[in-house]
Amino acid sequence: MFVLKARTPLVLAAVLSVAVSSPLFTSAQKKPAVAKRATAKTLADGPNVTRETLPNGMRVVIVKNRLAPVATVELNILAGGNQTPVGFPGTAHALEHMAFRGCTGMTADQTAAIYARLGGDNNADTQGNVTQFYATVPSTDVEVALRAEAACMVGVDNADHEWEQERGAITQEVQRDLSSPTYKLISRLNEGMFAGTPYAHDALGTKESFEKTTGADLRAFYDKWYAPSNAVLVIVGDVDPAQTMTQVREFFGPVKRREVPKETAFTLSPVKTETFTLDSNLPYTLAVIGYRLPGTESKDYAAAQVLADVLSSQRGDLYAMVPAGKALGTQFGMAGSYPKASLGFGMVAVASEADAKPALDEMRTILNRYAQNGVPADLVDAAKRSEITEDAFGANSIPGLAQQWSQALGADRKNSPAEATEAIKRVTVADVNRVAKQYLLHVNTMTATLKPVASGAPTAGKGFGGGEKLTSTPTKEVALPDWAAKPLAELRLPHPMTLPSDEKLPNGLRLIVRTDHTSPTVTLTGSVQHNEDLDTPKGKEGVADVLEELYGYGTTSLDRIAFQKELDDIGATEDAGFSFGLKVLKENFARGVELLADNQLHPALPAEAFPVVQKQTAELTAGNLTSPGYRTRRALSEALLPKNDPSLREQTPQTITALKLDDVKNYMKSAMRPDLTTIVVVGDITPAEARAQVEKAFGAWTATGPKPQVDLPPVPPNKPTAAIVGDPEAVQDSVTLAHGLQMNRFSPDYYPMQLGTYVLGGGFYASRLYHDLRQVAGYVYTVDVNLRATRTRATYTVDYGCEPVNVSKARALVERDLQSMKTTPVTPGELTLAKSLILRQLQLSESSQASVASALLARAQMGLPLNESDNAAKTYLGLTAEEVQASFARNLRVEDMVQVVRGPAPQ
């Protein structure tokens, strides 16, 4: 059973993105044709890049990457929020949604079933000037994905009755984002920074605009912008470029060429100085200074990116406010990057009850001083080195690399991601200083403060009763088009995973290494098993948080600044603590591991930093305890767990304030042990090379005393309850239904329960809950169902967001679908689809080095075989509908589910 704790790391939790995401399924077209090759390879491309422009104008880029037998197909339509008609913000976003409600040659149900069988890893997003449809699939299924994507270029079913149903779901997406104070902050900044231009509103849309939008409006937008000459198709992965290009010509070539209008020119007006305050549900006060910075088409854009990195450096004056105790966190970044301008921001967080003005004034002084006097040259070098190193890591994720290419060609209108990297390399200190002076000094800015509003204590609520009586109806089988039915009919085991080396050092540390030569980089991730609910001395609650934050203050041999400089000099990123990691170029692996071990084993824990961190942690805890987010998690924990359960221990400002530095040191000695530590290394390195460096750096680490307990005891069944947590900022309700299962990760019922969970929620519209709650009823934007299990506990949860008036109606559908899993075997079609989905997902989990490393670490610490995915695949393949039903009948207690609602009181 998973229970979320009070801990809030000393980082800013704002989500500063103006891109809008929503799940999407596209369709397919049936008439193949052959197009002639139109363009040659660009000189800057390497041997793995193949380009072509079809006669109808669509550009195609194929990037071969052998990381895994996986490929990502991403279709970029060069139109988004900036092209929407005046008075109808969100039209592009609405059309993105409609693509999964029916495309030429396919229904919504067929599209959902196809992508579920492909592994379910598909989505879409609408930005200011691009709409992106993407899917990651096994390489053997690329043809099916291409046929499905091609349908968007042929036609989208924008029928009024389909839009009437989808309007409810997209409105719930709007309501969700409007419940986020950081979204409202960015929206307000965009409105002021780019007034009178398309940049003033993001691509999301509004409830009002969707209410007046019609199917005819969507068809007009499609006809205007969805043309092959206005599209870029990116394919990345383990594919044969020549064969794949032939398929692209066949499926996309017949689409008729259409010209699109030229984008309307506009002029940016001067920024007007403005100051405003917004209410917030964050556990701290957030203050922001907004600047207008260069856009992506400006020659100064790369210099602005480097400037932002310099200003956020942990060696810089802005971050120095944190160790000085003047702020809980700081950041300088860029959001809303458009062709003509970008939104830049300086951000500072202080305690929830504190006055943000002093910190805000100091941040402005620091930024002005840098702009006036210039930035340190060594920080410019460090920023450039970091950007270039990060670019090298781009090849280590197939979907990530596809997104890099799509962003470069689609959103930024560049020739390749390398173009941006080369621009970074050319940036000089003089460029950065010139941009800082021009865009930060003596300019109009927008100043905003997000001030927390207390939510009040949770109250008891009615768990259920407002919904109509519903009976389960049989789920109809979906007949796939011939071109999809045949290749997707076979249920096949994924390609066996490549087993890593696995050994223990003499001190008990477990080292797992998997060699991958995709790029000259190495990723290390590690963890020390611990459970602060069990190993924290009574009255010392919060000591683990204080220890984690003190890890950021250098080592016994290198102070905070010197340590960060050593990392900057090799372009590495590093984190120490109970969860630790390192990303570094292969050539610098030895030095990177040496620095990581120095920080992990010999943190400075300086006496002068302790009271600062102690005060910051106490302030964050105080804000957290009154925040709606924490109160929601706490209400759920108290409903699921018995009194005095270790997970209900609660850190408070008082327990943290009572700590001494010796308490922190003693806790570190007892909890940080090599025999509870696992390190996973993935990258361009052999097991022998990795072991030599890890043993050299960590080999002298020893453990004393008995191992601390890390597993919580099992818990008895919970009783049904209901609670409401008020959130003044929420305009929709976030609902969690949950109950504890009398099983664990090693129970025989784990796999049939997971397979049944995929029937309920694994395949978007192809799953029962999405079909019933979103596609048919339009009550929700998302509904998530999860089985989470540890070595001793398990929890089953369903989460959704909806209008208060629909909370009980949606729950009625959830309960109906859950109950049917206990009483009736799933249909053959549902079982086959869920198996296909989960088997392909197991293969897709190998699509990035990061996902491989995290999976190996999780299996090691759970005590599972490292090739558990292979064993699981065989188990899933052999399960029957009766076994799934029996496992749900034994474990699922629908009548005992607790309900916690965050937001307005349900009606």
Automatic annotation (TrEMBL):
GO terms for molecular function: metal ion binding; peptidase activity. The keyword Signal applies. Keywords: Hydrolase, Protease, Signal. Residues 214-385, 659-836 form the Peptidase M16 C-terminal domain. This is Zinc protease. It comes from the Bacteria. One of its GO terms (biological process) is proteolysis.
